[in-house]
Amino acid sequence: MTTEPSPYWLRDNCPCAGCRDPRNGQKLFRITDLPDDLAIAAGAELDGHLEVLWSDGHRSRYPLPWLAGETGEAGDDGRTEAGKRLWEAADFADGLPEARWEAYLADPAERAAVLTAVRRDGFAVLRGVPAEERQVLAVAGTFGHVRVTNYGELFDVRIEPDPNNLAFTSAAISPHTDNPYRDPVPTLQLLHCLENSATGGDSGLVDGFRAAALLRAEAPEHFAVLTRTPVPFVFRDRGTELRADRPLIDVDPLGRIREVRFNNRSIATLRAPAAELDAFYAAYRAFAAITLRPALQLDFRLDPGDCLIFDNVRLMHARTAFAQDGRRHLQGCYADLDSLASTLAVLERRSAALDELAALFEGEGAGEYLGEAVTMAEHMLQAGALAEAAGAAPHLVAAALLHDVGHFRGTLHGRDLMAGQDNRHSDTGADWLARWFGPEVTGPVRLHVAAKRYLCAVEPAYRAGLSEASEYTLRVQGGPMSEQEAAAFADHPGAADAVAVRRWDEQAKAADARTPDFAHFRPLLASLMG
Amino acid sequence: MTTEPSPYWLRDNCPCAGCRDPRNGQKLFRITDLPDDLAIAAGAELDGHLEVLWSDGHRSRYPLPWLAGETGEAGDDGRTEAGKRLWEAADFADGLPEARWEAYLADPAERAAVLTAVRRDGFAVLRGVPAEERQVLAVAGTFGHVRVTNYGELFDVRIEPDPNNLAFTSAAISPHTDNPYRDPVPTLQLLHCLENSATGGDSGLVDGFRAAALLRAEAPEHFAVLTRTPVPFVFRDRGTELRADRPLIDVDPLGRIREVRFNNRSIATLRAPAAELDAFYAAYRAFAAITLRPALQLDFRLDPGDCLIFDNVRLMHARTAFAQDGRRHLQGCYADLDSLASTLAVLERRSAALDELAALFEGEGAGEYLGEAVTMAEHMLQAGALAEAAGAAPHLVAAALLHDVGHFRGTLHGRDLMAGQDNRHSDTGADWLARWFGPEVTGPVRLHVAAKRYLCAVEPAYRAGLSEASEYTLRVQGGPMSEQEAAAFADHPGAADAVAVRRWDEQAKAADARTPDFAHFRPLLASLMG
Fold first, then answer.
1. In chain B, whose CA is at the least distance from the CA of A174?
2. Does any domain span residue A399?
3. Which of A231, A307, B470, B481 has most Cβ atoms within 10 angstroms of its Cβ?
4. Does pTM top 0.95 for this prediction?
């Protein structure tokens, strides 16, 4: 070891199955379960790992790249200014981050791009969302959960006869964040335009993180005042009395801008000595003046079918006044950034998994397939193509395509199977695939060896048709099932799917077959991950 | 003025109708709308107010008690340790904060007591909640909105075959907060017991604020480390990848404990120089050891029908292991403290309004009623009693009881009416009541004078029966309606209710009638505020 790692940190990160639930990665011990005098009794690098014997007898094994910080969780939660692209209006001279609703729904890459924009720029616009009531809830459902508030599951932004909020009038609204009187404040807002035929009523966005960063650069003392002064935000109507005392600019423990709340409409009476009030109001007015700088104001118009998604703890949104010469009707709802980030991470993880599968088909998969006349990749592509040609359901096409993936995963390789040692490739493959696919895909993969042993027991013609290599591995895998085993297998709810995959498996060994490549199957696999 | 108030602060708090929407109290100007050189041109105390002429010509008028901080929003949002009662287990030797579900539903005071306990102690138990599926959502609905998470709208805590979380096994779970990997984290949790016949499976709570305060007292350097170290909390399953980097102990800008996150299961790899990791783990282990002190552990058993409501950013909850000799099934959901605080504030505001009404009936209401043989309070109580005796709907009983409340509200008094100046008491009364009651109550109050003018127009016998005083005020109020006015009134959807109230009004002037007192009507009024 070049540097001595912190012992409690190292032990807290022990990856063994006794310390972490292998199914969900959750730690299985309490930090207080570790002895007070914990120390490394012995440590050595071996086979790309740091092997540690602990003073209490426990043994841990850490991959060296993980120890060096090259693998494992990287970065942070991306919620502070450090994870953002701070912007001014001119940065969008070439257009807003946007996508068509249909493409967003159909293509995971398009979805990831939109969610990435919300994380990075604080907003994105979906175009062509059906201009129908309650559709905004469907948009929110694509990346998270609606946050219900006193305004309901959704709210209508249009002129109301007896408004409880300025939003429900035709007046101009200067840049602000919503619901600052809530704690937790909703971190995302959606605004879906159903009608906008009025003169005026344009939308504006300001990057509140950018404004705060400018304040810090130009007047650090003002910035400091705003980060350390809890401001009472209040909203009150007949059934509601919300209050949150939070600073206008919230920084994380490292001093990085994390959240902005800004809404003069709902700032109630701040009580403090007069000198502090003077300092606060000077800072507040300086910050407010920055938010009104033309360079920061990104103005655009929402047309029917447009849905704006934005970060409500970063961006301020505004509206110009509108004339009552036409109708303006938006529907809005709130949601949260954490679920959006999760959805994006899962999309990226799935995309990476598909890349990894593609690489396997091109790399290891291009190698010899256990004595057959085809490569492993050709074999699996043939099996997938046969399933597809047979009109099989997508999950069976995927299972056929991926059934042997366990041959190039896990510690035992396909060649071990040929050397007489069962690599249990159906289980290792299914376990690996279960990180992305449901049981409808992993089930047939898990049972495809059992299905072979079953078919050999009940269909003499099937066994007679096995290739030489397959006849050899049958013995390593336990030989044909007994009558009792076969009866139990037939009763298994997944037996039919497994048998179907097995038959494509056996047929997929033609040396001269022309098959589509892995990219052909990628959208189908992506849809099954959804 | 004894001290010079801060000018921008003072102006930002101008209560005039041009500066604040009288309907919702929202401010109607931007802080940047105020001139850069704003100053007080002249100020004087007059009639209990500070009258200010501003340098830009605006005039403001501030009640002196408000200026002195005696009225207006007091305190803060109650979310830090300053607003709590920090506890150890012995503080509940005489019992937990609890209520019966039926009493909680029926009695606003009981509801307020339970919600107060959640705010103050961090938890309360409702007993006798029907042990039925999804009932926990009904409990949450009494004070807020369910926060949907990756676990769904609600979650079942029972043994699951392939758990994605330790909660869904029979293992012991040490004190922790839930979902620390969410940001915003759900601030409230509900656990509703449907079955608990297993041996073990008891519940435990620890006051995390108390534990943090002890750490601060005993080892301030450890406390400081935990408040300034963002910890990566991670949860990952096939469809989820949540991450939040937050300190274990979150303090507000004034250094007060505000939130605790504590869950070793989901702490991922913290990356920092070894010395910082050593400091963090020493502090973390010290904090964890405090949470395990027997004095802090409040243990109890949830029985079927019990619903525990607790603050998930303050209290840590735990569970003892249980044997599989019986069944244990809880249903849980998440919600948020802000809505709970709002619900409590509205309950308290309504209770205060009823107190104020009661005082009016006893105070001003005991005075002369415009030349009638009864006091104003007797008159209104009689009207309410007549409506009740007639089997009228609750909102009509309330309207009859409260119809003349405008006589003792507002700037013009009932005596002005007798002096020939219409005090528009139906409007002032209805406006005041609208802060608590819906249009079904305020409508008849608002229209009860119009109803008199209507009845005098269409029913000669009604007019003949008016008391002498009522005949006098009729003229001040505009006399009988014209035929056109009467037709328009009859078409009004609220006409029938207003006429009904008016008839009880006229009958309610008997000098010798025995009526129930205000307290008799209080539950009815409270139910109409709900």
1. B30
2. yes
3. A307
4. no
